[in-house]
Amino acid sequence: MRCVYRLALCGLGLAVFACEDIPRDNPLDPLNPESTVSKRHLIEAFVNTGAHPSEFNRFMLDALDSLETMYGNRISIVQYHRSIGEHTDPYHLAENDIRYQHLLDALQSDFKGAPDVFVNGIARRIQGASSRENAFFRLQQALLAETANHENFYLSVRVDRHPGDIVARVTVARLGNTPAKDLRIRAILTEDKGLLHQSRVVRAGTDSEVIERLSAGEIREMVLPAMTWEGSRTGRLIVTLMDRETICAYQTSETVFPD
Amino acid sequence: MKTANPYITFLTRTGLFALFLIAACSSELFNLSSSPVIERIEASAYEVDPGDTVTVKVIVKNDNDDPLQYTWTATGGRIIPPVNESEIRWIAPARGGIVTLQVTVANEKKSTEQSILITVRSHILPQVQIVAPKTDAFIVQNSLVEIRAVARHDNGIQQVDFIVDGSLCSRQAGTRDDNYRFEHRFVHPSGPLSIVVKATANVTGDVGADSVRVHVEGIILGKPGD
Hints:
The complex is a heterodimer.
Chain A: H1 2-20, E1 37-38, E2 41-47, H2 55-71, E3 75-81, H3 94-107, E4 113-114, E5 116-119, E6 124-127, H4 132-145, E7 150-151, E8 153-162, E9 165-174, E10 180-191, E11 201-207, E12 211-214, E13 219-223, E14 227-228, E15 235-243, E16 249-257
Parallel strand pairs in A: 2-3
Antiparallel strand pairs in A: 1-7, 2-5, 5-6, 8-9, 9-13, 9-14, 10-11, 10-12, 10-15, 15-16
Helix pairs in contact in A: 2-4
Chain B: H1 6-30, E1 37-43, E2 47-48, E3 53-61, E4 69-74, E5 78-80, E6 87-91, E7 97-106, E8 111-120, E9 127-132, E10 138-140, E11 144-152, E12 157-164, E13 167-173, E14 179-185, E15 191-201, E16 207-217, E17 220-221
Parallel strand pairs in B: 2-8, 10-16
Antiparallel strand pairs in B: 1-3, 3-6, 4-7, 5-6, 7-8, 9-11, 11-14, 12-13, 12-15, 15-16
């Protein structure tokens, strides 16, 4: 019996020493200093699809469809519809204009028009279109130029549905061994209208409070302000982790609802 | 009547004679007027082709018939010996441009120099390169884009034309630094479009060109506030 105890103690000691040597190399372990996750790129398209949609917008929307087919869950596309002069758009929102102007101000640009597409905030801009092929080529070039295909931020979202509104519950984690600061999470609700080029129409959006600091390895749960939503519609909730000015997107996640 | 004092008269005359002697001697001593004077340089042609032979002659005013020495130099081409005559033959270089021929004329005491310019025609077309935009660039409709080009020619550039979509949009005189730029607003239909930059050479009038094809990306323009 004593021999059995001795063996058990030795085994336990060995196990303890062996555990100390286990490297934290799990790429999904936030405490692994080398941990990263794939980056999902945010594509914000400002378009006009009025009663007589221009071929330029059609070219761009066709190209975005192709891009979504090719890149799948590596990108999230949202369409902000804008009325421009006599070119009214039924899905125009005043908030869309505000978001557009916000990005233009960050770029110090006053050259407005549609289509106008931004990749990861103001990192890349693709304005205008002359053909589906050219638009696709330019979008693809912009994505290829976004060299950071891995990111030190993990982001996930789930939807809490309530009568008349939707709440985004977000989990954000800082991977790697350096802290991050001055972040903000932006949530965008898009609706699938069930029509061509209208599967990702922005219907609402909201921003979180500023995340002053996210320590290395820290995981944080956040609840974003509720967004108005009618019960039966299908859509997607896209959340993106940005800088506090919401002009640079670091990581994006999305969920489709109803499941 | 009062007669002149012979002593003063003698001194005056002696002084005048001495002054005359000094003037004569100083001219000889300091040699003030003996520098050769080049009246002009004449060439059989002032605008030639590469390899042409040109006779160049210096005409000197040499009242004293002093023995003179001639020294010729050229910034290009080749002087056929002898090079120490008043008239030489010079062969134009293979490359076009402006060549300076200089002659130094010297007597035993002093020298003087003068030069002429001879233009050598270059029959190579002007080199033109559109630096921006690059070929196959995408240009947003109605945007203002700078077209930049470099144009060179051995005889210099007389003018540079910017032609967008077949229309002359700007004509600029030649510059010293070879750089030309023009801001153009691309109010053109959506689709491919050509930009041509043509440079005309000085002297020969030869024209060189470069072109790029760009894509005008159509847009619904917003007005301020839209």
